[in-house]
Amino acid sequence: QEKEELIEEWQPEPLVPPVPKDHPALNYNIVSGPPTHIITVNGKECINFASFNFLGLLNNEKVKSAAQASLKKYGVGTCGPRGFYGTFDVHLELEERLAKFMRTEEAIIYSYGFATIASAIPAYSKRGDIVFVDEAACFAIQKGLQASRSNIKLFKHNDMADLERLLKEQETEDQKNPRKARVTRRFIVVEGLYMNTGDICPLPELIKLKYKYKVRIFLEESLSFGVLGEHGRGITEHFGINIDDIDLITANMENSLASIGGFCCGRSFIIDHQRLSGQGYCFSASLPPLLAAAAIEALNIMEDNPDIFQTLRAKCERIHKALQGISGLKVVGESFSPALHLQLEESCGSRENDVKLLKRVVDYCMNSGIALTQACYLEKEEKCLPPPSIRVVITVEQTEQELDKAASLLKEAAQSVLN
Amino acid sequence: MANPSAVCNGHLHHHHHQKQNNLLKSGISKKNGITKGMTKNGVSNGTLYKKTFIEHFEQAPMYVAVFTFVGFAVGTIFGYLRDFMRAWGLEKRNIAAEREQQKDFVPLYQDFENFYTRNLYLRIRDNWNRPICSVPGPQFDLMERVTDDYNWTFRFTGRTIKNVINMGSYNYLGFAETDVNALKTVTIELEKYGTGVCSTRQEMGTLDKHVELEKLVAKFLGVEDAMVFGMGFATNSMNIPALVGKGCLILSDELNHTSLVLGARLSGATIRIFKHNNMQSLETLLRDAIVYGQPRTHRAWRKIVILVEGIYSMEGSIVRLPEIVSLKNKYKAYLYLDEAHSIGAVGATGRGVVEYFGMSPDDVDVLMGTFTKSFGAAGGYIAGRKDLVDFLRTHSHSAVYATSMCPTIAEQIIRAMKCLMGLDGTAQGLQRVRQLEKNTRYFRRKLHEMGFIIYGNDDSPVVPLLLYMPGKIAAFARRMLEKNIGVVVVGFPATPITESRARFCVSAAHTREMLDTVLNALDELGDFLHLKYSRYSKSSHPELYEESRLELED
């Protein structure tokens, strides 16, 4: 009888808390038409400085015709996971091509960029293993680590001394319990070019640490694939490191390759394991073949025109220089990184006010024909929340005049809004 | 094992339980291997169900269970033998090995973890990951693949096996097609939009196509608003953590899909599992949860969410929605329904289990589904009341960090949905749904008559056929391929170790001839491999069947 009363009395919370009507994410920008170089946002035509279309392949005719041919042959969807008749010859071809391009033994494709790293990490690192990860790692890595239930040790962003200190501590722990140490796997997870800060990671020092402390390295190259290196092979080519020294490289195809999905590449010893234990691979439908065909064509273009990478880097340097010295805003990111952040030099006190101020800068620019966006984060879920910033993306299609126009417009906007 | 004892029941009290076995559930509970006999569901709650709800989960005779275990034991012994020979160099190692420079690192894989993969899965792995080179319609072309070294590596001969009947792809309504007229709008949109989006929903990735699609999905389902995501798996794993958190309780069905389990784990809430489709178990859990509160502090739970699927893909069973909704209303819990396989596949006009049971979409709090199965595209959606969708637009992990759906794929979904709703001016949509229903019933009836053990609800287009023994898995798949029919077989760990099965997915695009070809092949193969375990083959007198159901009210 008492139980009935308790059941009657219990009141749950509402399923979702109410969201204020003026929450910035509810008033999002609607883009009409394709998000290419000239983009129509909320009805206004602007030059696109906000989509990660680094090599300008979103509007490329060859890519589109390859996708059309695939559409005629295969239809749209694959109607099944890879294990049950969802493997098409285009998938196998794309995996081969990616492996050849990156000069590794094997590659594996996922149908969603976020799911790539979020499924790759839990496939190798289980409960009881130790992962050293940079503070500025992106959200997908954080979710992968959470799903793996391993011990996470954060080290300060790009601070090799801090990482070495943590590794030494781990070594002393190991000596106390050698039997356990022999079965605990250790990993370092870093990004090539960090999405949250635009910095590059010091890979040569990491390799030295790897062999000294016997840790495996997982490298996430979403921003650096197709950007760094002489042929666009990413940060390993940039630093001239033997690619077999990195245990696993993941990247998503949504930035440079202008398709959808992601891939992991490395030695067969490592990649083959994911075919049975990568959750996003085994339990999810495979990539639609037209997107795979588009990615193959994009790879062809990348291989045939290796000079676009140099052009892209030159443009990045140009705008990086042009944006220095804006009063009130500081540029965060390497000079050759195509995705920069502009942060407020002095915060106004609360994050909300900072966000509102930056929004006014962005609106000013949008009204004058440059499409920018603020970097969005989930404030409560991130481990180390980066400060609010405006994201500036450089693509190969932007001309020098447009770059200069963007820089001067940002100067004007900062002047009028922040002073 | 308790298995033999329950099967004994079937043997000794043959006549009395004969009718019961057919109609009530006697599932082998995966958790503790004990079958709790027959639960009388669905009959006493007859008023909630507007049409008859018939599910079958027959058990096989005891010798089958014995032989299955023997088969696995033999495989394991040989596995140890081969591992031993490989370790001592008597046999060649064919798998990839660790780098020389990294030999003194902690090994990446434990030897024992891979035992099953190396020794049992590897022997028959040519039955999975078969590459195809045409559209996955009712028939497709397979690439011929041979192995020279017992499945360690494969080699493509360059030939294709043409016109293999496809009983494995999730093509329920037949929208995986390459007909030029059907794909006209998709071709136009591909030319206009290209293939990528390169941005997230909250930044610069919301295209007008997404807005159009979301409005259409909301209209199709009869709810206020909807939101679409780029991947079905990710829809679950990224939105469940946004909706529930610490201090909440998730009650999830035993046989839920990996994406639901992953989403529940990532959310940090407490998870309790109830037996598959078993309403008593669910009710007990609900009562205990409300009465006793959280485990150590005994504080009240913040909210309780029930996670179920519309059709369970490995069992072919349909969720008991009316009972769950009445429980949910009584105990003030929330319901999250994953209609990955059921949207488009069941219901009079293809609107899923909600329509199948004649209920209103307002009864379910969160309607989730994927577009991969019935619409021939990719991606997922969540639909419901406007405040729910607004919350997801602001707080979903996918909206902030993951790329939005490709616009060409969105167009395919739009045209498929318009066809289903009849908005394109033809009656093709309804025709497809009716054809699927007819095909499902015909296929299942024939398989029952032949004497195979089939699991699941009579109306579900997912048809699992039980094989049990590990040796038969490979034999079945290979011989069906020789007859030009492509089937999907599943074993451990996707199913319980003793219940390996072949799973057929009936499609609206299958013609009667194709189904007859498959049925004849199954008949032959069933006799050859002794697969017709059913002791209660349904006779061609359905009236008797209906009568005996009413007799059970004791």
TrEMBL record, chain A:
EC number of the protein: 2.3.1.50
Protein name as annotated: Serine palmitoyltransferase 1
Organism: Oriolus oriolus (Eurasian golden oriole)
Keyword RNA-binding: no
Pathway: Lipid metabolism; sphingolipid metabolism; Sphingolipid metabolism
InterPro entries: Aminotransferase_I/II_large (IPR004839), AON_synthase_class-II (IPR050087), PyrdxlP-dep_Trfase (IPR015424), PyrdxlP-dep_Trfase_major (IPR015421), PyrdxlP-dep_Trfase_small (IPR015422)
Family membership noted in the UniProt record: Belongs to the class-II pyridoxal-phosphate-dependent aminotransferase family.
Annotated Aminotransferase class I/classII large domain residues: 45-408
Cofactors, names only: pyridoxal 5'-phosphate
Role played: Component of the serine palmitoyltransferase multisubunit enzyme (SPT) that catalyzes the initial and rate-limiting step in sphingolipid biosynthesis by condensing L-serine and activated acyl-CoA (most commonly palmitoyl-CoA) to form long-chain bases. The SPT complex is also composed of SPTLC2 or SPTLC3 and SPTSSA or SPTSSB. Within this complex, the heterodimer with SPTLC2 or SPTLC3 forms the catalytic core. The composition of the serine palmitoyltransferase (SPT) complex determines the substrate preference.
Gene Ontology molecular-function annotations: pyridoxal phosphate binding; serine C-palmitoyltransferase activity
Recorded catalytic activity of this chain's protein: dodecanoyl-CoA + L-serine + H(+) = 3-oxotetradecasphinganine + CO2 + CoA; L-serine + hexadecanoyl-CoA + H(+) = 3-oxosphinganine + CO2 + CoA; octadecanoyl-CoA + L-serine + H(+) = 3-oxoeicosasphinganine + CO2 + CoA; tetradecanoyl-CoA + L-serine + H(+) = 3-oxohexadecasphinganine + CO2 + CoA
A Gene Ontology BP annotation from the UniProt entry: ceramide biosynthetic process
Pfam families linked: Aminotran_1_2
Cellular compartments per GO CC: endoplasmic reticulum; membrane
Keywords attached to this entry: Acyltransferase, Lipid metabolism, Pyridoxal phosphate, Sphingolipid metabolism, Transferase
Entry-linked PANTHER family: CLASS II AMINOTRANSFERASE/8-AMINO-7-OXONONANOATE SYNTHASE, SERINE PALMITOYLTRANSFERASE 1
TrEMBL record, chain B:
Class of this enzyme: transferase
Membrane topology: Single-pass membrane protein
Keywords noted in UniProt: Acyltransferase, Endoplasmic reticulum, Lipid metabolism, Membrane, Pyridoxal phosphate, Sphingolipid metabolism, Transferase, Transmembrane, Transmembrane helix
Location in or out of the cell: Endoplasmic reticulum membrane
Gene Ontology cellular-component terms listed: endoplasmic reticulum membrane; serine palmitoyltransferase complex
EC code(s) of this entry: 2.3.1.50
Family: Belongs to the class-II pyridoxal-phosphate-dependent aminotransferase family.
Protein's recorded name: serine C-palmitoyltransferase
Gene field: Sptlc3
